[in-house]
Design goal:
Helix content: over 70%
CATH architecture: Up-down Bundle
Number of helices: 6
Oligomer: single chain
Radius of gyration: 23 Å
CATH topology: Four Helix Bundle (Hemerythrin (Met), subunit A)
Strand content: under 5%
Number of domains: 1
Length: 156
């Protein structure tokens, strides 16, 4: 093989490694504690609705009910987070002094419990509305998914 061909191939290979590495590391990681913008959150919920709709073969009406359920769950999550932008800072503040801040911890628990009690009926109603709209085969798929402990989307 001629030297200029070798150099060109090595250069292309090296460039593809660099671009691949930057692409792999350059995306945003969304986890349970990540803070997404409202647009990103809506996009994520939309993708999840499409994913579930594909697995369960949902009709347009069922997809709409699933979207409502996702929105209600998101509202409850936002309400649970409250005014704080950093929930870990709240927890760190409880143990920041030489004594555990019992009053602050109790207030935190009370706030979160109140939010759960106020938002849960809406979430339960949306979940019941969605589940009741499923036919028997779709409901069985949901039960099978739950039986496998949520490993529906895992590979392998």
């Amino acid at each position: 093989m001629k030297p200029w061909i070798k150099r060109t191939l090595i250069g292309l290979f090296g460039a593809s490694i660099v671009v691949g590495g930057l692409t792999a590391c350059g995306h945003r990681h969304y986890g349970y504690n990540s803070s997404m913008s409202s647009e990103e959150s809506a996009e994520f919920r939309g993708k999840m609705v499409e994913r579930v709709a594909g697995k369960l073969d949902l009709t347009a009406e069922q997809k709409q009910r699933l979207t409502v359920l996702g929105d209600k769950l998101h509202e409850q999550r936002i309400a649970l987070m409250g005014e704080t932008k950093d929930p870990r800072a709240e927890m760190k503040a409880l143990v920041a002094g030489d004594k555990f801040d019992k009053a602050r911890a109790q207030a935190l628990v009370t706030d979160k419990t109140t939010v759960l009690q106020s938002k849960s009926p809406e979430v339960i109603a949306a979940l019941a509305d969605f589940y009741d709209s499923l036919n028997a085969e779709q409901q069985q798929k949901v039960r099978d998914f739950m039986e496998r402990r949520g490993r529906w989307f895992q590979r392998g």
